[in-house]
Structures are given as structure tokens and as C-alpha cells.
Amino acid sequence: MGNDKGMHVISLPALREAMRQLVRGFGSTPAEVDEVVDNLIGANLRGHDSHGIGMLPRYADAFLEGNLQPNAHVRVEIDAGALLRLNGQSGFGQVIGREAMELGIARARELGSCVVALGHSHHLGRIGAWAEQAAAAGLVSVHFVNVVSRPIVAPHGGSDARFGTNPFCVGIPFEGREPVILDFATSVIAQGKTRVAHNKGELVDPGCLIDDQGRPSQLPRFTVVPPLGALLTFGGHKGYGLALVCELLGGALAAGLTTHDHDNSKRRVLNGMFSILIDPARIADRAAFEAEAGTFLDWTRGSAPREGFDDVLTAGEPERRYLAERTRDGIPVDVTTWSEIVDAAARLGVDATQLRRAAGFEA
């Protein structure tokens, strides 16, 4: 474990053991402990600290208020062949998301496609993980996700927050080359990234958020501590339109639950996810599809990088580069986030001294 300018760098094995100790405090089964920890650390490994272990203090709050249910599993509410409606029963999204995708994958392999409407899951984490799961099974997937928590994103032209960061994700698999995994929040940046910036004492880029008076600001505190402002949608009306679609499909249709008030009292984060899974071999010659796709991807990446860029990447490549680097060198955790994690462990009845030792800190 190292420390550099307010950052701890913790080895992968040490961080896994420390986080297992923490997650046991929820009363989770050993299997659920491993699944939650591996998913969260997987986000950190891929450079998405916003969706990694820094979420555990929020999960602890949700659990202690009674809005996160450990050891819950997906319940099938409607089974109409290529259509599934599922209820996550407020369980850990790391478990619920995987179970929902397993059901959809099995049905898409049987029938060629499947629409999965998942509601009432606690935070599903990095949605790219579910596209990767589908891609590993050889399936194309498209995901529209809503976020039911305190509103954090303003509508285009609006001066206050009205909905969540509402992610959109697509996964496209190929044999013999890495999949394309497109995964982004419909806000300019994810809310968790403002939490990370706030904890590090950094500013965010211009054009990302507004303050509590609707004025442009670079202070991430306006999405973390009161008085609250709001994030902006990417691309103005374009990101706003996609956010609306995510709320209508992932929220109103899949979950029957949308954001429509300013209630900041609950710490739980509920997600609805409307997913479409397709076996590409059922609608095209798989070899011809992949040959044409590969030609296009190679053509695109062949563009000479302009000033300020090292090379041209396709969706999913930055995450794979982070994965290799952080697996080798360790995972950076800012000191504020680490302090919040230690405090959360104590609130869950976990020995904070043992947790620190597991992470490589001196007692």
C-alpha cells in the first residue's frame, strides 16, 4: 500500500480482502459478498471509481435505513417467452443485474432475442458490466436505465435537478477481438465522478454543472452537499432527450417507477433497466457481420490522432487499459473516500482496525 498526494494505492488482493470484511457487515452470504466486492472493484479496475468501492458508504446508509435488502434475488413477474418482467426486490444490484442478464441470455439463445424489463433493483453499478456479460455469451445488448434517488440532473434549459444520470449502454461482441462496450451517463459526467472530484478537492470541467441558483459552476460540491445544484445533460437537448427515453423505458415501463419529486431523505439508489438482447447469428451471417464490422473498426482506428491525442480508441478500450494498469500497480483510493469507507465499516459493526490491516495499513 502506498500513499501519493492524498491518494492511497492499495494492491488488488489487499483491497479485495478489506472490502470483503466490510460487505460481511451487511449480513450477506459468502457468495453475495464476493459478487458485490468483485463487481465494485471491477469498476475501480476499469477506471470508473465513481461506480466502485466509494459507493459502499452510500450502500451502508441505504441498508441502515431499510431500503437495501441483502441476499435478495430476482423475482419473475411476467414470463412471455421473449419478454421478461423482473423485480429486483431492492437487492444488491451486483447480484440482481447478473441474475437478470442470465435469464435474458438463456432466453435470447433459445429464441434469438429477449426483452428484459427489470425494476426495483438497488444500484446496478457500472452498466457496462451487464453488456460485457451479454457479450461474453455472444449477444448484442442495449440497455436503458433510470435512477430513482434524489434528482441530480437538470433538463435542457432548466435551472434545477429533475431526474438522475440515467445511463445508456450497448454491447457488441466479436469472435477473435474485444467487444465494443459503449457505456455512459446521459449527464455530461456521472454523479459519482463529482463525488470523487469533491473528495479529492478538484474542480470539474466547465459546462458540467450549475449551482443552486442555476448558474454555471465548476465546484463539484453542488452535487454532493447542500445547497444542491445540478449536473447538465451531455450535448444539450440530445443528451436530455436520451435521458427522457431512459426514464420512460427503464423507469415508467420496466420498473413502474420514475423520479418526480425532490425528496432527499432516502439514501437508497433504485434502478430500472430496459434491456434488449439479440443473437446476431439469427439475423445475419455471423462471419460476414464480424468481417464487415472489423473492417470498419480498423478503418476508424486508422485515423491519424490529432494534437492532444495519443491514438484513436473505440468504446471499451480505455477500460481495458485501466484494467491492465491497475491490476498490476494497485488501485488508487483518495483519502476522503477511504475515511468514508472506514466510517461505514464501523456503522455496520465491522472492526475498522482489522479492515485497515487487511488493506495494508499499519494498525
Describe the protein in words.
This protein is of the alpha+beta class and 363 residues long. Helix content is 39%, strand content 18%. The protein has 11 helices and 13 strands. The strands form 3 sheets. It has a 7-stranded mixed beta sheet, sandwiched between helices. The protein has a 3-stranded antiparallel beta sheet with strand order 1-2-13. The mean pLDDT is 95.
What's a concise summary of this model?
With 363 residues, the protein is of the alpha+beta class.
Q: How would you name the oligomeric state of the polypeptide chains in this document?
A: single chain
The rounded Rg comes to 20 Å
Parts with pLDDT < 50 across at least 5 consecutive residues? none
**Major sheet attributes:** 7 strands, mixed
User: Which strand order does the major sheet show?
Assistant: 3-4-5-12-6-7-8
**Gap between N and C termini:** 13 Å
Order of helices and strands: EEHHHEEHEHEEEHEEEHEHHEHH
Query: Architecture in CATH?
Result: 2-Layer Sandwich
How many DSSP helices?
A: 11
Q: What is the averaged pLDDT score?
A: 95
CATH-defined topology:
Ribosomal Protein S8, Chain: A, domain 1
| Assigned CATH superfamily | Malate/L-lactate/L-sulpholactate dehydrogenase, NADPH binding domain
Helix content: 25-40%
Shape annotation: globular
- Highest-level CATH class: Alpha Beta
How many beta-strand elements? 13
Give the total of domains: 1
Strand content: 15-25%
Derived from helix and strand composition plus strand pairing, the structural class reads: alpha+beta
